[in-house]
């Protein structure tokens, strides 16, 4: 899979398990792209919801996507620290149109002190029944949730002390 070029801007498309578009982020700047990892940044990005509503993100964000992990991580740089919003999702794919993934509703919000809360378990259970998630998929998603929470507790990967700072500095060199 050929990825986007560093320095280019891409669209990010989130889908649901049934193939319907969920959300689109316009104009994210690619900071790193390999076969397995894509790191992008955006600030005041236009977001389009499936129901036609639009909104603009409020702060700079560094977004981490992996082709093997069933989650992605949005690190939001706020005045009082870095907040992380983690989507339990399919691994990303990239085509000439956009970076794409399937959003599986379960989310983890991580606070600057590395405490966290799991969100939308009821929405996940509802969609699991409605869209007939296979048992193996349910297992994959929960195993990846556990792996993600281990990264948070150990402050590894995108949760390490200098990860966001390093990529935000790179983002600023493009601006």
Automatic annotation (TrEMBL):
Q: What class of enzyme is it?
A: hydrolase
Cofactor(s) annotated in UniProt: Mg(2+)
**Which reactions fall under this protein's catalytic activity?**
a ribonucleoside 5'-triphosphate + H2O = a ribonucleoside 5'-diphosphate + phosphate + H(+); a ribonucleoside 5'-diphosphate + H2O = a ribonucleoside 5'-phosphate + phosphate + H(+)
Positions of the catalytic residues:
23
Q: Which residues bind Mg(2+) 1?
A: 87, 103, 107
Q: Which UniProt keywords apply?
A: Hydrolase, Magnesium, Metal-binding
What family is this? Belongs to the Ntdp family.
Record-linked NCBIfam families? PRK13662.1 (NF010183)
Q: What protein does this entry describe?
A: Nucleoside triphosphate/diphosphate phosphatase
Q: Which organism is it from?
A: Virgibacillus kekensis
